[in-house]
Write a structure and sequence with these properties.
globular; 3 helices; single chain; 71 residues; 59% helix
Length: 71
């Protein structure tokens, strides 16, 4: 298994978990320097693209607030 496949699967799983259990994952989603948001700067474009797609889905469904993470 390639590393990028594992990372993209984790991103999709986190997105699904955010929809099902938003209050449980909210503290972890606020960390901009590590975890979910760190994958936006991953070296593999496939991981970055999947992360952007999942972030977009979460933002459009009001599951994620981005204004705290914009610099």
């Amino acid at each position: 298994t390639e590393t990028w496949e594992v990372k993209t699967n984790i991103v999709v799983a986190l997105g699904d978990l955010c929809c099902v259990h938003p209050n449980s994952l909210q503290p972890y989603m606020k960390q901009s320097s590590s975890g979910f948001y760190a994958l936006l700067a991953d070296s593999d474009r496939r991981v970055r693209a999947t992360t952007v797609q999942v972030c977009t889905h979460l933002v459009l469904n009001d599951m994620l607030r981005v204004h705290d993470h914009l610099h």
